């Protein structure tokens, strides 16, 4: 029993509460608390990563109650990886926001901390109802963060986002209720055990509940036909918030992955592989529609929002196929796409600031103050996000394309390659509009803030770095894929916990 | 009793979904409330319906399942917070956007046919007098 498992949830929660009280005080103090808390979080996740890499699944019974009745936290390679991705992203986001973006509304840092608590909790929990609770924590913080800085566009998109997610929460509860009513447990591993032995009516009800859950997770992950809220919401959010939201769709994908491997995995008997055929089709449709949306976007941030959707579709394809190789490739792609798209959102914020009222809309505007520097950054990030060599986006896509075989292969190859091409065209159009075409007048906007630029550039550097360190990461994701596909190991870990 | 509860949940869900699909924020908020009532009731019933049994563990060997009650309590609290948030957001949207349509934009109203006719008639009449 390792008490450090609690830190990723408790630390942001406590700091968030502290920041609520400190918000009236000096801004420097608030920033200090927030940044140091997130750095601690990063340290903690970097400590948990090698711990999980040893291959043992750590189970933490809250209040030392044993598993089927008590609530458990569960740390395997997958959760540790997701925690690490979140913590790294959060460090950059908080540093960027601390250069002034956090003063556009009150309580930014507190909300950020609550959001992190929710995300980390969702990655760690081994219990269905607590997954719901952490989802709600994450969502209510995200509602407020989305509205951060106010403005008409934000309110309009937030209304859709909030209402849709409330309906999603209702469906989640119905699914959880169905699971409990049939299986009498909400612990995911117990549920897996029950599903593997269910038959007849029980099986039917469990499958219905599972399908409802997939619907809810799909809403969070934003794939077709549940993605319509995303582009407007992400495009209207402020740069650091949009960057943080890059991980939010991945929470939904994580939940889908967790459920499709653990509860409805290979060992699930009659319900094995529930809905993977549908997910596969939806993934491909998502990629196609998202890339068309990206091509038609009229501002950089909405283009990026559609690119988030492309990455969602690609990841979902990997999850739907669900072999060890595709899962490993998907996880690698997840890490790089999250960081690079978040970095691009931050870059879009910097570009928007230099264009005054025009923002990042694709309209001819004044000359940027630092067109070369920002343009070079944008160019490199574009190559990374569109999946051209030599950066990690390309490597992730190659891994994924290599991993599929047979009937699925040509479908995925066509969709991914063509969408990559269309994406490159759309991005180059965006780049030439923003960096080359301009009035003769120089913009009178604020000069480049060195710190925010450095933060953005560093985050974008993750892409080449991920290629350099591809071997250890791919080894790790392969081990992760093996682990999540082996549902029996989770049962074993849970039983060991009960015996203690 | 099962039938009655099932019908109640069904009616609540139906009304909730109907209201959620309306175009005004007020009816949507109302619909969300009804829907969350239905969900909470459903969650509660998942512990099976009993009468005359102690609620939580006691000396009795026969008791109702306490877990759904715990779940439903949590869900109610969260549901209240979320509904409050939606209401405040809807109010804010109304003041900022100037209307209470869920899209934030009022669709232009179609003119009534008889009115257009009368307009045309007026024009004709004006033309005639000239």
Description:
The complex is a heterodimer of chains A (500) and B (130). Chain A has 500 residues and is mainly α. Chain A contains 21 helices and four strands. A two-stranded antiparallel ribbon of chain A has the order 1-2. In chain A, strands 3-4 form a two-stranded parallel sheet. In chain A, helix 8 (201-221) runs antiparallel to helix 11 (248-263), helix 12 packs antiparallel against helix 13 and helix 12 packs parallel to helix 17 (407-435). Chain A starts with 6 loop residues before the first helix and ends with a helix. Chain B has 130 residues and is mostly helical. Helix content of chain B is 68%, strand content 0%. The longest helix of chain B is centred in the middle third of the chain and has 32 residues, at 66-97. Residues 126-130 of chain B have low confidence and may be disordered. Chain A binds chain B through residues 129, 132-133, 136, 140, 143, 147, 150, 152, 155-156, 158-160, 162-163, 166-167, 169-170, 173-174, 176-178, 180-181, 186, and chain B through 20, 25, 28, 32, 35-36, 38-40, 42-43, 45-48, 67-68, 71, 74-75, 78-79, 81-83, 85-86, 89-90, 92-93, 96-97, 102-105.
State the gist of this model.
The complex is a heterodimer of chains A (500) and B (130). Chain A contains 21 helices and four strands.
SSE layout:
The complex is a heterodimer of chains A (500) and B (130).
Chain A: H1 7-22, H2 27-53, E1 58-61, E2 72-75, H3 77-97, H4 108-124, H5 128-146, H6 152-183, H7 188-197, H8 201-221, H9 230-236, H10 239-245, H11 248-263, H12 276-296, H13 300-321, H14 324-354, E3 365-367, H15 371-386, H16 392-403, H17 407-435, E4 438-442, H18 450-460, H19 462-468, H20 470-485, H21 487-499
Parallel strand pairs in A: 3-4
Antiparallel strand pairs in A: 1-2
Helix pairs in contact in A: 1-2, 1-4, 2-3, 3-4, 3-10, 3-14, 3-18, 4-5, 5-6, 6-8, 6-9, 7-21, 8-11, 9-13, 10-14, 11-13, 12-13, 12-17, 13-14, 13-17, 14-15, 14-16, 14-18, 14-20, 15-17, 16-17
Chain B: H1 2-20, H2 25-45, H3 66-97, H4 113-129
Keywords (chain A): Cell membrane, Membrane, Transmembrane, Transmembrane helix
GO molecular function (chain A): NADH dehydrogenase (ubiquinone) activity
Membrane topology (chain A): Multi-pass membrane protein
